[in-house]
Structures are given as structure tokens and as C-alpha cells.
Queue: 4 jobs
Job 1
Amino acid sequence: MQRSDLPELVAMSRENMAAIILSSWGEEWKDERLMDLLLDQRVETTVLEGDDGIEAYYCVEDIDEYIFISSFQVRRDFHRKGLGTRMLDMIEERARRDGKAEVELCVQSTNEKAKEFYYYHGYDLMYRNGNNLIMRKKL
Ligand SMILES: CC(C)(COP(=O)(O)OP(=O)(O)OC[C@H]1O[C@@H](n2cnc3c(N)ncnc32)[C@H](O)[C@@H]1OP(=O)(O)O)[C@@H](O)C(=O)NCCC(=O)NCCS
């Protein structure tokens, strides 16, 4: 990720997530919250770029024996084109290479599309944390 990517990443995430955050947490979307994550030194952000600019990105954090996905976004006009699957493959490949046992993520309970996507890709529900679901896949 380049610093100049930040506005596009924030805009893409806001478009995808504002309604879901409101329905799950009852909170308005805040750009600053995502900016803090993207600028956090412990977070590694990978951006997928095409001819038409940034198409998708993900953030991961290295946590002991697993990798945690802290953001995972495909630009709305690129949904269902295989980019999400490609990003999960990249994350899982990297986790295996680093000797990790699992990949973990957190999804809002009202985010039906993402829940189905993760179930489809072998992630299991571990527990509920308020209006968030914690899901994991063993590698
Ligand atoms: C959820 C998301 C990441 C999926 O990425 P994507 O690039 O659209 O997904 P893919 O094209 O790789 O999907 C691959 C397969 O997963 C399954 N899948 C994807 N979305 C699905 C859905 N809504 N319902 C059921 N299956 C789904 C399909 O079987 C699909 O295969 P197909 O194309 O043959 O139908 C994407 O829709 C997104 O960015 N959503 C908004 C942001 C978000 O919610 N992020 C997660 C926050 S925790």
C-alpha cells in the first residue's frame, strides 16, 4: 500500500460497509477509524490494482499462531469476479508459508453476503462477540 492509496481505500470501504456498520452496531461509519487501522504499523495492507485503479484490498495482522484479517474489501463494481477468493488464497498461502495454523477474521452479524462467502470458503463460526462473529479456518 502507498499512502496515496488511502483515499481510495477509505472510499471503497465506506461504500461497502456504512450500511452494515449502522445495522450491526447502530453506529455511523467513521473514516478515521479505518485510517487508524491502515496506518497502524502492526497491520500489513495489500492492494490489488487493475487498469481502472484499485479493485480490492485486505489488511492482515500477525498474531502468534494465526493470522487475523482486519479488513477485507472488494470494490462494489468488482464483486463476484473472483477477487475475494484470490485474496483469501493469498492470505492462506502466506499464513502457511509462515507456519501459521489458522486464519481468523471478524464479520458483522448482519453482513449476510460476507458470512456466506466465508462459509463457502471453509471458515467456521467460533463465537459471537456482541454483534460480531469470529470465524476461523484451520490450515
Ligand atoms: C464478501 C466479498 C469480500 C466477496 O468477494 P467477491 O470478490 O465478490 O467474491 P468472489 O467473486 O471471489 O466469490 C467467489 C465465490 O464465493 C461465493 N460467494 C461470493 N459471494 C457470495 C454470496 N453473496 N452468497 C453466496 N455465495 C457467495 C460464490 O460461490 C462465488 O463463486 P461464483 O462467482 O462462482 O458464484 C465482497 O462481496 C465484498 O467486498 N463485500 C463488501 C465488503 C465486505 O463485506 N467485506 C467483508 C467484511 S468482514
Job 2
Amino acid sequence: MTEKQSLSFVLNGESREVSIDASELLVDVLREKCGMKGTKRSCDVEVCGACTVLADGLPISSCTTLAIDMDGRDVTTIEGLARNEKLSRVQQAFVDHAAMQCGFCTPGMVLATTALLETNEKPTDAEIRHFLRGNICRCTGYIKILEAVKSLV
Ligand code: FES
Ligand code: FES
């Protein structure tokens, strides 16, 4: 029998308590138990960045993180960025620069960019490329994404 645990955390600014299996991954809990379908699952091995969320403001791969490790912590998904139906400045920059095609990588890209700009307001091109190296996009060729991020610097 699988052991059930109670996960208490702050998700997108709201306190949540969720009953989970000890072995459940964060990506599954976010998508299937919390309704945060913006968190994408792709490679499952911490390579593509599609499942990126912020834990206490820092990007992590939710596909390789146990949900229970988020107990007592603050998690932000793409659904938590907009305020009062207004996109965050990073989301708006991605829209303004057409920095997406299929959009599958976009939540992870936007969250990683949000974390970058929180820690480094004026990253160089090299720093942007380095910070986003863990987020793979199969559509855009990255140029529009870089333009979007640079517009915020
Ligand atoms: S699905 Fe998590 S890094 Fe690819
Ligand atoms: S927009 Fe399709 S993977 Fe990035």
C-alpha cells in the first residue's frame, strides 16, 4: 500500500493542502491535483525545462522533484504570474515579441526569465543564454525569445 502524506504549501499565493503519495512527483501533483496544466511534461529527465516552476523564487524541474519536498515552501506556476487579469511584464514581452509558436516551452521560459530578472536586473546576452540553457524550444530558433528578454533589460 502506498503511504499517503499531506503536502502543505503556498501555490501561486494561496495556501494549499493536498493528500499525495510519498513518491508523487511535483509535476503530477501540480497538473492533476492542483489543476495547473500550464506546467508541461516532456522529457521527464530534467533536460527540456518544459516543467519548470519556481520554488521560493528559483526555477526547478518539477519532473524530477518530489512533491513532498515542497512542503512549507512557496511554488509559482505560470498561472500565478498574471495579476488582476494583467499579464506580468515577462509574459507581455513574450507576446509583444512573438516569442512563441506552439507554446509548449513558453511557461518554463517565462518562469525561468522571471527568476533571472529577479536576481539580475540587467543580464548580458551571454548571461541570458546561460540562464536559459536548460529551457529547450523546438520552434522559435530562440531569436524572438532572446529579443523578448532583452527588451526587459
Ligand atoms: S519535463 Fe522536466 S525537464 Fe523536461
Ligand atoms: S514555441 Fe514550441 S517549443 Fe518553444
Job 3
Amino acid sequence: MNVSNQPKLTVKALRKTYGPVVALTDASLELKEGEFLTLLGPSGSGKTTMLMIVAGLIHPDSGEVWIDGKLATYAPPFKRDIGMVFQNYALFPHMTVAENIAFPLRMRGVPAARIRDEVARVLDIVRLPGMADRLPRALSGGQQQRIALARCIVYGPSIVLMDEPLGALDKKLRDQMQLEIKRLHTELGITVLYVTHDQEEAMIMSDRICLMNDARIGQIGTPADLYFRPRSVFAASFLGESNILEATVAAVDGGRARLRLDDGTMIVAAGGADAVAVGAKVRCMVRPERVSVLATGAAADNVLDAVVKDVIMVGSITRHYAHLPGGQEMVATGLTRGDGGPAGRGTQVRLGWSADSTVVLP
Ligand SMILES: Nc1ncnc2c1ncn2[C@@H]1O[C@H](COP(=O)(O)OP(=O)(O)O)[C@@H](O)[C@H]1O
Ligand SMILES: [Mg+2]
């Protein structure tokens, strides 16, 4: 067997129900060694359930978990070589930082002298040397979370699971910790399965994102895959802002779909064209930053007449909210210009964007 190609973690067709509630179903994915994969989805979509099954803290109704090529679906948690970090730190309040970090090593019978070295080593890694003798309550939330991380990585687990670990921190600390966890991931070469409901956090941190909705995996791909080539309205709207137009497929050729909007206007889409058939009712998506307010005489693959309803400047970005003749709203975002932008409120404009920026959603 080629060990380097063997997935670190494979889950196959996992299903978990609680009475009539389906918490997770049809869930299959693979994690490569050293990969950072994030389960992203709204609250209740099954993210924690998946993580708990991988950790061995709950058993699935059906399906399999494979770790390092070994079937582990029903293996007890401590036989899985997995570390876990939760949102609420879960440090032992009556133990010092050093004792907290030492705990998993003591459980594994590591000699005292080595424990001391290891504790010092991971305190350096999480950049909190000198904190060894403090109690958790004498630390800030961010510091406590770093200690929880240190305790998780100290025994060198081959997979680290993190369930919304930054959820309790304020925005500034969260931004710092995101980069800190990324750094640890790169430096230690660990495999990470991460959970968040925050799409920005998922895009910043992940090699790949597994988008979850309603107990199912919706789409798995790189952040760019999901952002530029969403395969559902849910994916298009959960990650970033999107303009969505309803249309009928008029023709498909050369990897492009020609779409007719309700008012008869034609639009060309290069994304997702292989997955739709002529005559189908579809929606198509274009990101606001791809839509421009066209200058007089300027051309684009797709052009729609619209009236600007609002112009909102948000620092470096300005948003133009415009209405199409049918009443539908479209948003165009662009870098803020010193002259107040291309069009003021109430102006009749043409919105333009390329076929390459247009994705058909079946
Ligand atoms: N112990 C439980 N008993 C009953 N329902 C549960 C239990 N755990 C989770 N659920 C339900 O399963 C679904 C998925 O939950 P969860 O995996 O925690 O979602 P997420 O982590 O994405 O917010 C939710 O509808 C939740 O209410
Ligand atoms: Mg959860």
C-alpha cells in the first residue's frame, strides 16, 4: 500500500439520528495527511455530530470511520490518537496551566522529567512561556484557549478536531487566534478537522471547506471552488454576497449556457453550464464585486438596465444597490473612488459583467 496516499481520515456514509431528528446523513469525506479541512454550516447542520463521531464520543447509526487506514467506527476515543479543542476551553479550573497540559501525558504514563520538558516545549509553541504556574482563571479567554490548544497538541495527536474554538472570543482576539492556529497547523504539520459557522473564518483558515446544510454535506472544495463555483443557491448565499437571477436555459454549447431572463434579456454563463439542460428553469449567480456600473459606450458579455436606489460607502468599498425593471435588486461593489463613484442615487445605469463570472445553479 502506498502510505503517503492513504487518507488520514475517511468517513463513509455516516448517519446519526435522535428519535425523529436526523442529525447527520449521507456524510462521506476524506482528509489528507496535513490537511486543514473545515466543516462550515449554519447552527444545527450536523457539524458537531460529525466531529463527535470522528472522536468516538458518539456512535453513528450506520456508516464507517477510518483513521490511518484502520476501521475505527467503534474504537474508544483514547485509542484514536485524536486531540480535541472545544469552544469553552474545558480546562480543569483547579489545576495550574502546567498540570492541565501535563494531564494527557500523565494519563499515558509519560515519566515526570519528560512531562516537564514537553510542557515547556508546548508553552513556547503557543507563545505563553512563563505561565506554567498560573490557574486558568488568572488567564484571559484567548490565553485559556491557547492553553487548551497546548494540552491538545502536547501528546502529538495525528488528527486535531476543533469545534468552534474561537466562538467565545471577541473579534480582534479571534483574528489573532485564527492566524495562530494556522501557524501551528503549518509548523507542526498536523491534520485538522475544524468546525465553524463563520464563512470568513472558514475561508481564511482552510485548505478545503466542507459545506453542511440540514444534516448533509452540500459541497466540498477549496475556498475558491466554493466561492466562484458554488453548486447550489445555498452555497452561493452562505459564502459571501451574491446576486441571484432566475432564468430559463435557452442553449448550451462550448461550455457556456445562454439563459433567458423573465423579461427576455439574454445572459451568458460559463460556470456550471455542463450540469444543466435546455429548457430547464435555473438560477444564476454573479458576485457583486464582478458587477460594474458601465461607462457610456462600454460593453460587457452581460448587460442589464437598472436604476440606482442607494449608494453606500463602507470605507474602501462602495456598494451600489440597483433595481432591475422587474423590481429585482442587484448589488455592485467596487473600490471607493474619490469622486463619489460612477453613479448617484436615482441614476439610470447599465450593469455589466462577464460570462466567466456567471455561474448556473441547477
Ligand atoms: N443529543 C441530542 N439529542 C437530540 N438531538 C440532537 C442531539 N445532538 C444533536 N441533536 C440535533 O441534531 C442536529 C445537528 O446538531 P449538531 O451536530 O449539534 O449541529 P451543529 O454543530 O452544526 O450546530 C440538530 O438538529 C440538533 O438539535
Ligand atoms: Mg455545533
Job 4
Amino acid sequence: MHCLSRILMTGVTTMLLAGAAAPAVAWGPGGHQAVGAIADQLIAGTPAARKVRLLLGTNLQTASVWADCARAVQSDQGVWTYVIDPKNRRAECAYDENRPGGQAALVDYVRRNASSCAGARPPTSQCRHKAYHFTDLPIQHPAYALGQPGTAPDDLVQTVGALLAVLAGGKSPAPYDIKGQAEALRLLAHFVGDLHQPLHVGAVYLSEAGERLDPATPQELKDHDTSGGNAILFEGRNLHEAWDGILESQYRQALAGDFKAEARQVAATPGAIASWPTAWASETASRASLAFQDLKFSPKVRAGFDTGWPASAPKPTYAQARETLQHEQIVKAGARLAKILGTLWH
Ligand SMILES: [Zn+2]
């Protein structure tokens, strides 16, 4: 459930927000491309931009969705294939689908990183590379420390740390199998975005009755897991989707450079670069409490795909608060992606 349910919405989609038609695009690809575009704008003309172009042959905006395009790779009895669904073409993946060796590179990455997950997570096929996209810090304990409830040796924070190690010239640390700097950069352009999506980092755990819990054991984590909001039923979709979607206006403004000046004002993160993912996860988890504090949860229902906890929120204030926080997080993610690259290659 956890891995499968983290499949992000694809393509440009229109959603109903707060009872009014409000065009939105998904954090994947819209939010990720917005983050990549801001970083592209900030490093333009620098040695970091030249290195990005050399490694990727494209920009961060285009590369930012690569880790989600990898979800199209399927395995059947040892045969691995990149599968294009003609009914659900993903425009953002066209670049990698069409460039020479593009599909093979995606298949190769997934095959190397597809083993089952450990711990409380279900041993789903390809679980590991899908687990790279999130961590599940209980909102009661937002300070990230590996080994604490909700963390895992292959979670989002460890993933970004592993990518930084490879980009700094080191080897890919276990359990990761990252091929080299180009692959690490493609992944980094995505995962710094995920690290700033509140529901990819902070989690609410619920009892059957819909009461908030503070899980302490692996069994409690499993029993009360809301799967990053995928198991919270909210306004005709799930809460994770609601937070993945960004306003189309935000997306267009990010690509047009409207957030560049604001991104330049994002405060530098103190400490060594290797400590940044932990600091950013702790900050995002703190901010994630905003996503849950005004929600009212009902007892869990079991009805196929609609299994989960129904939730409601005050209108229109909840949607407005979400849009404000999404904007802040996208700007920070873009600024920080640029900061990493400017620090590595100057
Ligand atoms: Zn992701």
C-alpha cells in the first residue's frame, strides 16, 4: 500500500479546490519542474550550470521528473521494460522516452535499486526505489534522526545524503546503487523537491477511531500509518494528492522566473553540506504540522480503494494555507538545490 500509493498524479490536471474551479498541476511533475526551474535560474551562467549541462545534456527542470518516470518500469519474470501507457501518456517523460538510451537508463536504474524494503514496510516489488521518495516522521517528533520512528535506511533523507556523496566524488553507499554523477544529479533534482513536500516528510498516525497517535514501535507505525496522506480521504481524492497539486499560476510563475528574487533571499543552511538533508527534513516535518492541525478525522472506513480515514477542513482557509506553504517550500527547494550545486561546482 505504502509504496504503491505513493504513485504521484501525472499530467496536467484540473481539480476543484475549496469549491471553486482552480487549475492545478501536480507536485510531480509540476512542483518538481518548478523547483528545477528556479534552481536553473539561480545557477545560470555559473560553473554549476555548465556542469549540469555537461552531465545531463539538459537542464534541472527537465531532469527533475526522471525519478518519477522510473515508476513506469515494470518487471515480469526477470524481464525489465519501460512501459508506455498510451491512455496515460506522461508528457514530462517524453524527453527520456525519446532520447537515445533514455528508456534503457531508466530500466537500468530501477533494476539496480528495486529490491524489497526492510522493516515495517511491505516487501512490495520495486519497493526500495519507491521508498527513496519519502520518510514518515511523526509530527510530534519533527527532528530527523535515523533510527527514530518513521525513518529508514533507504528513506528520502538517506537518499539525498547518498546522492551528495556520489556527486562529491565518492562511491554509492549501501543500500543504494547509483551509477555515477549524471544519474545522481538527475535523482537529486527530484529528491530535493520531495524533501520540501510536507507530506513526503511529516506524517500523522491515526487510531481506528481517527485519533492522533504517537507511534513508538514498528507494529504501531504499521498499524496507524496513513501512507503520507494517501490513506486520508479528502474532498473526493486523498490528502497526498491535494498536497502534490500546485496551482497552475504558481507553476507558470516559477518557470517564468517570477520567484527568482525571492529564492535568492532564502537563508543559507549552516554546517557541512552532508548535514543539510537532515536539517531540511526536520524543518519540513515541522511545517507539515500545518497540513494536519485543522483537519477533523473520522473513524477508518474499509471500501476498496476508498479505504482510509475521511477528513474535512475549514473552507477556504485550509486551501489558502496550503497554497501559501507550497509556494514557500517550492522556493526553498529551488534555492537549496542551486546552493548544493554551487557549493559542489564553483
Ligand atoms: Zn518523488
